Amino acid sequence: MSTTTVDTVDSPAASGPVDAVPDGASAAGKAASRALTEIRRPVAGSVRVACVISALGALAGLAPFLGLVELADVLLADSVDRGRVITICLLIAGGLLARAMLMGSALTITHFADVRLQAILRRRMVERLGRVPLGWFSEQSSGRVRKAAMSDVHDLHQLVAHHSVEMTAAVVMPLGGLSYLLWLDWRLALLALATLPVYAVAYAWMMRGYADQMRRMDESNARISAAVAEFVHGIAVVKTFGQSRRAFAAYRQATDEFVRFFSGWVRPMLRTEALALMAISAPVIGLVTSAGSAWFVERGWVRVPEAVACVLVAMVLPTVIQPLGFGAQARRSASAAALRIHDLLRTPELPVAAAPASPDGHRVEFDDVRFSYDGSTDVLCGVGFACEPGTVTALVGPSGSGKSTLATLLPRFHDVTGGRVRIGGVDVRRIASAELYRLVGFVLQDVQLVYGTVADNVRLGRPDASAGEVERACAAARVHDRILALPRGYDSIVGQDAQLSGGEAQRVSIARALLADAPVLVLDEATAFADPESEAAIQDALSELARGRTVLVIAHRLSTIVGADQIVVLDRGRVAETGTHEHLVGAGGTYARLWAAHQGPDTEKTK
């Protein structure tokens, strides 16, 4: 099922419990930091080289400050040395040019590194997700996978492409300037830092409990996204029954909770933040350093050019604070994203047999099968029966009896927690994945068509199939004429110029299974979305398909499996009855009751 994700407030915090204790917050922060280090490892060398170049660029950026001090010395002299003035101006221009070139080179390196890292991560995700059990995808939100592959990978961009280079320059340049002031006079260095303690104290007060608050904001954003996704996904149903206002209430409640939390957190900090920013504002710093430098000059501690150097260096310091703040924010956001990517890349893979075996034939056996989703409650309890080649076996039973779960164990959407599922006498867990998916085809009730042409969708199981084979498969699935009626026929793009109904999409998926020519088929009520006119034709196509093959049908409408060779009735995860339609109706058991309910009270019972 596809879900919709919504970007609300950009939350850099890692996901966690709403009321996490400090120890938990620390552990989550360390885990996120370790994940970020691991994720960035492929490009760490390139980033380090870029940081060295950035540091050199920052030092080159000090040339204008030194040059201006020397220029003040020259201009305040009794006679002005024009040649020295020109030389100093050229050095200032050269320093600015060198800084621009070095910083540009550093950012170019990190941007290429960022592109390379994104490609590496997305390839690793695709490779990992290609090896996880298929059932994992039905348990996980598609929004989570999409967020990791798109949003979370993108969230690393600022950290990789900008953060390290800009932070290096932001730290090296003021440190170089302060070192220069220390060389001139230690009192000048202290004066340049005079207003920073006020900012530091205010910032420390504002950051109290920050990690926990950011986690709460991340949780609030997640609830808003979930509410929107649920509303959008079910919009057709809620509008049909006139319940859009009620359905919207969940979203309104989530946003109201977020507003209350966010305003309660931020409002008390506004005055403190204003004081902190005022302390490092250019007018305040300029006023403090100018007054202090004038006093130093009056006392004879420093010369006028040195006082000018103090003011210039001090004015640079506010430009450092902003990158440091944004850098910390970018790192927290990237750390949370890296942790989610890291968790996705650690998704358990489908176990692969060390010595794969090949089946002998296509007989399917369920031998004392047990299965549990949570490891404690069994959904299936000792299910056992066999499906012979060339026959159709139908699984029926009340809702929640385990029909779909049992069928998905055959293509290894999940692995059994007890017993065995065999094909041709071999446990499916010992069959190589590629061979298993060549052996077992499935047509599920939830049809999935990918973006691409109709022909490409049919060819998913056999990419090398010819156009004639594709058309014959579609003809057998009774969808060939409908495809020819599309604007570009088989070259029509699904979702663009090929708008298919549910029944038509289902028939395309049946054609896909026909073309794949798998000897074992799992059909989850393949005609569920077919219109009455084409249902009989599809049943004929499936009957033709069953010849020489082993077919397992999950039946929701009993009328579609009356002619099945074997009907297995499940009830509460156990086999209640097995037999043909006539035998089971005559037995008067669970199937007979289901059939009577299906026929309705006014319809004569079919025998």
UniProtKB/TrEMBL annotation:
GO terms for molecular function: ATP binding. This is ABC transporter ATP-binding protein. Keywords: ATP-binding, Membrane, Nucleotide-binding, Transmembrane, Transmembrane helix. InterPro entries: AAA+_ATPase (IPR003593), ABC1_TM_dom (IPR011527), ABC1_TM_sf (IPR036640), ABC_transporter-like_ATP-bd (IPR003439), ABC_transporter-like_CS (IPR017871), P-loop_NTPase (IPR027417), Type_1_exporter (IPR039421). It is found in: Cell membrane. Residues 49-317 form the ABC transmembrane type-1 domain. Pfam families: ABC_membrane (PF00664), ABC_tran (PF00005). Residues 364-597 form the ABC transporter domain. The chain crosses the membrane at residues 43-65, 85-113, 189-207, 274-296, 302-321. It is a multi-pass membrane protein. Residues 1-25 are annotated as: Disordered.
